[in-house]
Amino acid sequence: MRLTAVISILVAGSVSLLTSQPLEPQDHPTFKSNSELVVMHVSVRDRGGRYITGLTQDAFTVIDDGKPQSLEMFSADEVPASVGFLIDNSNSMRPSRDRVVASAVEFAKHSHPQDEIFVLTFNETVRPAWGPRLVADTDPTQFAAAMSDAITARGMTAIYDGIVGGLSRLEHAKHTRQVLIVVSDGGDNASHAKLEEVLKGVHESDATVYCVAIVDPLVPNGSNPKLLQRLARSTGGEFYFPRRIEEVPRAFERIAKDIRSAYTIAYIPTKNGDSTADRRRRTVKVYVRSNDGRVLTVRARDGYFEKGGEGRQ
């Protein structure tokens, strides 16, 4: 998680899933060295995989570069997100095309009304297919038609270019909570971008990456689901590998629930005395205990980049 914004941005998210009342506009965060916050979105489950609700601030412990931190902000309310879909539009996706379109439409229907959604498709070329547009302003029929027209499932695969394009779009996102959902087999045979560029971009971004690996069992060669798993785990997201096409909607449903269920925490990091360090990466660990003292399963980003001196935007 990168250094992020002022606390007032976070509290704008305390809106019920069922309401369609508009939130106050959210600016993209500005980072200043004298008022830095680290903002993290934390998913908490028990050993059975069930989401844990009703936790209070004192249940959370944050260790930043080996030092315990004091939380400046804690929220169990849902924070609207900017969600980018990156959908593989190459020939390998042909058997899954219709189910992916239907699943994406259902995902939008069950999202927060103030979520911002955009869609990019990629084969040899990365193309915009939808948005960015708020869910409250989205007509499901129009969205379904746009997705169906855009996903033709032909050609080669430039997933690296797609991820770089998606991260670039999120730099101008409406909300500070940012999500990238990658739907692909993970293989690449057409990108101009290199893998190192992709890994660096994901490492430095604010986005939580969720990946749904869809591999054609008739053409498994060239796929790389391990890359998708790596991207998801490093950002606090999740990786899904449906073995049957009928399981794809369930993966999208779980992603939507995970986005809605996260806690939001924020703190001003304790400095280590080196104010001249530029782009140094700080590691973060988050621990959570239940009300009866049990250690719970936590997913969150494992670090962020700082910048000394004059700060950055």
Kindly describe this structure.
There is one protein chain. With 313 residues, the protein is of the alpha/beta class. It folds into two domains: 3-12 and 27-75 and 264-307; 81-261, von Willebrand factor, type A domain (Rossmann fold, 3-Layer(aba) Sandwich), CATH 3.40.50. Helix content is 24%, strand content 28%. It contains seven helices and 15 strands. The protein has helices at residues 7-11, 97-109, 140-150, 159-170, 195-204, 225-235, 248-261, and strands at residues 3-4, 37-45, 60-64, 67-68, 71-75, 81-88, 116-122, 126-134, 177-184, 208-213, 239-240, 263-267, 278-288, 297-299, 303-307. The strands form three sheets. The chain has a six-stranded mixed sheet with strand order 8-7-6-9-10-11, sandwiched between helices. Strands 1, 2, 5, 12 and 14 form a five-stranded antiparallel sheet that branches. The longest helix is centred in the last third of the chain and has 14 residues, at 248-261. The two termini are 14 Å apart. 42% of the residues are buried. Mean pLDDT is 84; it is low at 1-35 and 309-313.
